[in-house]
Predict the structure of PTS EIIC type-3 domain-containing protein.
Amino acid sequence: MKKLIAQIEKGKPFFEKLSRNIYLRAIRDGFISAMPVILFSSLFLLIAFVPNVFGFKWDKEMEGILMKPYNYTMGLVALLVAGTTAKSLTDSYNRKLESTNQINFISTMLASICGFLFLAADPAKEGGFLNAFLGTKGLLTAFISAFITVIVYNFFIKRDITIKMPKEVPPNISQVFKDIFPFSAVILILYGIDLTIRATIKTNVAEAVLKVFEPLFTAANGWIGITIIFGAFALFWFVGIHGPSIVEPAIAAITYANIEANFKLIQAGEHANNVITSGTQMFIVTMGGTGATEMVTQHTLINKMYLLDFNSICITIFIQFSRYKINGYFFDCT
């Protein structure tokens, strides 16, 4: 055991550095920023389908009314996360830049969202575009769009490759011209990636990325996968590292994608069989704290109470079995 702990301790500096990685933190913070959308949409999902458990079903028209808020929020979650992740990563880069030469996070959010549409949205026959990959299926692509956007912006702003306006021009107008070069570069780069992928494998980037990671998701989506993934939470905590900051960003895309997949299975009258979800994590794996902290604490307290009761019994027995001397005679209390 000591050798195992020693080996883990050797990797502690690496994992500490990993937990402070700005890209992993951007994914985590981007999800946290989008959490109100996820929670709001879940309420309508519960209203629409929980009554089914009790034998009551809404008619199709009412079900459509109830599901519209879900489809218009959770159905666009990747689009929103593309913006929130870009904002979080922009903040990290700005800490390294001079206070007088900062990246405009609003501009990076807009560029990331626009770029994500190039990578994930297919044109519809009637005009507009399809939204199949704007929800949880497009989360991985949303991260790619956000990362490329902020990296490109940092390249231009750090090297001062911008359009400079006279000091007399209002700051908000000056900022617009300052963002023209990096914004244009981001869109051209992401559009170029989109054209390349479509020309080579005849699909959009979001679907291509999903196909690449699908075998990994399938392999992890089981009880063995859960044991390894969530066991890592406790392992990192064991060596003094914040486990969720490392593991959660890596599994965020699959957990929320599985929620939508389970929802579709339930809609089709089948059983939800995807086990790696945020619900599994919050209400089974880490309920009461990582590593079942609450249960371990309760067990420890119960043991202490048992020991206190046992000690009190021993003291009572000791007193009762003592010998007393009264009027010159010894009396044995046994």
